[in-house]
Design brief:
- The protein contains 4 helices and 7 strands; from the N terminus they run ααββββαβββα.
- A 7-stranded antiparallel beta sheet has the order 3-4-2-1-7-6-5, with helices on both faces.
- By secondary structure, the chain is of the alpha+beta class.
Length: about 190
């Protein structure tokens, strides 16, 4: 553009420049604006997904946890961390539990954690006493993978299955009662 060359040759001279829409700077400016709009849209979508995930986690009774590969740091989300023996230290992203507060929990689950860190997916039951009542939990642990595919820690879910265990126990008791009645009825019928 001759106007740009003229200004470049005599920078002391003040002069308005008309910029052609096909000019490289205009094209660059347009591309920067498109990228900024895209970034703004992406940030908004990211916030919406984060809010939705937070609502999902807060809506379930299950407790979701992530344990670092060295087993020193545990992050707990949703549910009832106290049921699992965690001291609750609320942070913006859930509960962050330090090693000194989780020693008993880690000790109780160390064998399962080691197996999960070796790549195994585990589901097992665990019983705790809360206010004099037995609480049954089902713990699920799986290895957590980094983007490069390496195990970076453990992800787990703890679900309170106390009601299920109670119903199972009641059902077994009813079955035993019915079995006894059936046995007695068979004895009675055979004596007739």
């Amino acid at each position: 553009n001759k106007e740009v060359e003229s200004i470049a040759n005599s920078p002391q001279k003040f002069q308005f420049v008309t910029v052609d829409q096909k000019d490289e700077i205009s094209e660059l400016s347009k591309n920067v604006n498109l990228m900024l709009e895209s970034l703004t849209t992406t940030e908004k979508e990211k916030r919406e997904v984060e809010q939705q995930l937070e609502l999902i986690v807060d809506s379930v009774d299950d407790t979701i946890f992530a344990i670092s590969k060295d087993l020193n740091d545990i992050r707990v989300f949703g549910g009832k961390p106290a049921l699992l023996g965690f001291d609750e230290l609320p942070t913006k992203q859930g509960y962050f539990i330090y090693n000194s507060l989780t020693k008993d929990w880690t000790t109780s689950h160390i064998q399962h954690a080691i197996r999960a860190l070796s790549g195994e997916h585990l589901v097992y039951d665990w019983t705790v006493n809360q206010d004099g009542n037995e609480v049954f939990l089902q713990i699920s642990m799986s290895p957590m993978f980094s983007k490069s595919g390496e195990i970076s820690g453990i992800v787990g879910v703890a679900r309170n299955i106390t009601q299920l265990k109670k119903m199972d126990s009641d059902l077994r008791q009813k079955f035993e009662e019915l079995s006894a009645l059936y046995f007695v009825s068979q004895l009675f019928l055979s004596s007739i």
